[in-house]
Amino acid sequence: MAKRFGVGVASVMRWIKTPDPKTTRNKPATKINMEMLAQDIKNYPDAYQYERAKRLGVSKQGINHALKRLSVTYKKKPVSPQSQRRKAAYLPEKN
Q1: Pseudo-torsion of CA 17, 20, 21, 24, nearest 10°?
Q2: Packing angle between helix 34-43 and helix 60-69, nearest 10 degrees?
Q3: Contact by Cβ (8 Å): 94, 64
Q4: What is the number of structural domains in the chain?
Q5: Residue 73, strand partner residues
Q6: Which of 51, 44, 50 lies closest to 88 in space, CA to CA?
Q7: Is residue 65 part of a domain?
Q8: Is residue 8 in a domain?
């Protein structure tokens, strides 16, 4: 069957194990206050995600998903020495 569809055997076994497609979550995140997260990004642009999670009292994965929803981008800070280089977070400009 794997040869017939041009996929790996593991894929076929996974499809047999769970034939129904997985559903997505249809409700917004409730614990993370997006305004507080945006303010945290402005106050601490070079903070790591685990630091943001600790400040806001949420999980690291929750911060990761919230940053994606805010379309946050990361840029390397050129003024830092190469050995201590960190990335800074930037919110997109609103038109």
Answers
A1: -110
A2: 90
A3: no
A4: 1
A5: 90
A6: 44
A7: yes
A8: no
Other C-beta atoms closer than 10 Å to the C-beta of 66 total: 22
Collect all residues with Cβ–Cβ distance below 8 Å to 17 and sequence separation of at least 6: none
Q: Is the pTM of this model over 0.90?
A: no
Angstrom distance (rounded) from CA 3 to CA 21: 22
pLDDT digit string (tens) for the chain, length 95 residues: 777 878 899 988 888 888 777 777 776 667 888 899 999 998 988 888 999 999 999 999 989 989 888 888 877 666 655 556 567 777 877 65
**Residue 18, in any domain of the structure:** no
